[in-house]
Amino acid sequence: MQATSSPPVSGLLRRAKLRHFLRTRRAQIAPEEVGLVHVERRRTPGLRREEVAALAGVGVSWYTWLEQGRDINVSEGIVNAVSNALRLPDHERAYFYRLTGHNPAPRPERRDRGGDQARMRALVEGWSFNPTYITDRYGGVQLASASAHALFGITPRDHNCLVKFFTDPATRRKYPDTDQVGRGLVAQFRAQSARFPEDPEFGRIAEWLGERSPRFAELWDCHEVDDPSQNVRRIALPDAGVVVFDRVVMRVPELPECLMVLYLSPPGAPRSAAPARELVDAHARGH
């Protein structure tokens, strides 16, 4: 198999991401985790290229080309084999698929949907008053509910969630789990960039933020990927203490580039916890 020449600019951007992603994932796997035992001391952490190639059942030269970002054809079977060798979780596997030009493999059907049903019920019942906003592909807020403005100070068209978090100390103080939230935002931004591999704006935003936030630069270099549909978010409010929300992220069919983010009172929350509407109303009255 031979590499082709003169790749388009979009292909170069995509393969640069692929190259960095594979290197960082390989470096995170200890040989002992995959049953490899070595006596000699290693100069670099993680697996070697030839070890990943052997685990995936592909040639060393071919895997080297893949990790170097050469313009080669990669089948879905090879993507799956390398994903297994690198022990990629579902969200990183989907990211890898997109970087190689394939649609992610469908996830196995889950039998127990009780948690999903509870979250959807809470979504339907609380749609009108829970903090809600819609972002563009880069995390820029396009629309926001009044409760989202009261809780987060979000002003549509003038608020980018990623930029605000890493450049505004007051915003970071709202989140007791600062490092976890920061990691999640960067990992989600990575996942979004794979959906639009031809868009250089992701790289420009990352470069701009990296110059202003050493922590962002560090997390961006880790190449972590996540595309969560639901997680828990703790927020510190001056008049209510630390409040726990179920943060739900949904894609909008009519706006394929956008994400809708909702903050709900978690299903099964103790009765002592005030509903989202009461918390937001009280916080708004304090402004």
Automatic annotation (TrEMBL):
Gene3D superfamilies linked to this entry: 3.30.450.180, lambda repressor-like DNA-binding domains (1.10.260.40)
Domain of life: Bacteria
Domain HTH cro/C1-type, first and last residues per copy: 21-93
PANTHER family: BLL4672 PROTEIN-RELATED (PTHR35010), BLL4873 PROTEIN (PTHR35010:SF3)
Protein's recorded name: Helix-turn-helix transcriptional regulator
Lineage: Bacteria, Bacillati, Actinomycetota, Actinomycetes, Kitasatosporales
